[in-house]
Write a structure and sequence with these properties.
It contains 6 helices and 2 strands. Helix 3 crosses helix 5, helix 3 packs across helix 6 and helix 4 packs parallel to helix 5.
């Protein structure tokens, strides 16, 4: 196992920014990092506890999407491939986080998922690793937007006549 911190510990000390911010174009949920617009704006003012809460939500939502699309069938093989490709991970990373690290960095060059200790779950088992990565990212975006709408969007009172 790599001794370098990864998704969890290392990144929580930094910004989740993926360098593709869409909040500057008016998106309420960034298409790059999936943070809410107000979190992007206020990130440098957040204390460690607030940053950790954002990270926990991001990892939970992403892992939920990944786990619904791909399963790890051989953890040792997955770890060995992560090491082979010099993708940092830690023992604290979930299986889904490790899968995402691999897909994010190598999906364009991957062939058969089984060679990485992975299996796509039906109905996604005919998709390429790149297609799976894009599907997961799109579903992660939709889930983040739904989370934002559920917890942050103020619902306007209904207008119109009441009987």
């Amino acid at each position: 196992m790599s001794q370098r911190p990864s998704d969890g510990a290392r990144l929580r000390t930094r910004t989740p920014c993926a360098g593709r911010c869409s909040t500057t174009y008016g998106d309420l949920v960034c298409r790059g990092c999936k943070r809410f617009a107000h979190e992007v704006v206020d990130w440098n003012r957040y204390g460690a506890e607030a940053k950790d809460a954002v990270w926990q939500r991001l990892l939970m939502l992403r892992d939920q999407v990944v786990a619904g699309r791909i399963e790890v069938i051989d953890r040792c093989l997955l770890e060995s491939q992560l090491q082979r490709h010099r993708i940092p991970f830690s023992g604290q990373d979930s299986d889904a986080s490790r899968v995402w690290l691999l897909l994010r960095r190598g999906s364009r060059h991957m062939g058969v998922l089984a060679l990485y200790g992975l299996r796509a779950l039906p109905p996604h088992d005919e998709l390429s690793p790149l297609q799976l990565r894009d599907l997961i990212d799109a579903d992660y975006q939709r889930l983040s937007e739904a989370h934002y709408e559920r917890y942050f969007v103020l619902h306007q009172p209904a207008t119109g006549r009441q009987s």
